[in-house]
Amino acid sequence: MHNLLRQQKSRLIRLASVSILLIASLRSVAQRELYLPNHDDKKYYLGIALMYNTSRFNLSHHPGFLGQDSVQVVDPENAGGFGLAGIHTLRLNHRFEIRAIFPQLLFSYKNLTYHLKTPDPMKEEQKVMTKKVESILLGFPVHLKFRSDRIDNFRVYMFAGGKFEYDLTSNSTARRAEDLIKLKKYDLGVEAGIGFNFYFPVFILSPEIKISNGLMNVHSRDANLKYSSTIDKLQSRMIIFSLIFEG
C-alpha cells in the first residue's frame, strides 16, 4: 500500500509539473508581442528581393543531329547565378494579392557540354567542350498570391503567374560566332512557388522558392555553325531562392 501511494504521489507530481509548464507556455504565447499589427490594412506596399538562382536549358536536338558526325552528345548542365528585384504588392482582400516584380535583374549562367567525335587541334578543341552561356535578364513577373491566416508573427503564402524577360546580353546578331551559342532577346514563361512571412518590429522577412520555366525557344540557330546546328530548341529552366524584405 505504501508503494502504491508513493507511485500515485509521483504521478501527481509529474502531472502537476507538466500542467505548470503547459500553462506557462500558453501564457508566453498569449503575451507574445504582435509585430506590425496594421500591415494587413495596407492596400499597397513595397519590398526588395535578394535572389540566388540555379538554371539550365531544356534542350531539343535538331532532326539533322543524327546525320552529322562532329558532335556525339550535347548535355545541358546546371549553373548558379544571382539577382536583385523590386517588389510591388497590391492587396485585393484578406486572401489574395497581386504582386509585380520590377525591375528584376538576374545574372544567369547555363552551360552546354559537347562530346566531339573528331576534335580540331587547330582550334584547340578537346574531346569534351563546355560552352558557358551567360545572360543578364531584365524581367517583369506578375503573380497572384494566396495567403494563409496569420499565426502570431508568421504566415504562409503560395503564388503563380507569368513573366516577360529581355536578355541584355543577347548575341543573336553576332557575326563571328563559331564558338558561341546565340540566344534571342525575348522570352515568356510561367512561375509558381511558396513563401513564408516572418514579421519583425520594422520589416517582414520572406524566404521564398519558385520554379520559373521559359515557354519560348530562345535558341537562334545557325545551320553553318557546329555548336549551333545540332540544337533545335533551348528553353530556360530555373529555380530561384529569394530573401524578400518588405515594410
From TrEMBL:
Protein name per Swiss-Prot or TrEMBL: Outer membrane protein beta-barrel domain-containing protein
Source species: Pseudobacter ginsenosidimutans
Location of the Outer membrane protein beta-barrel domain: 58-219
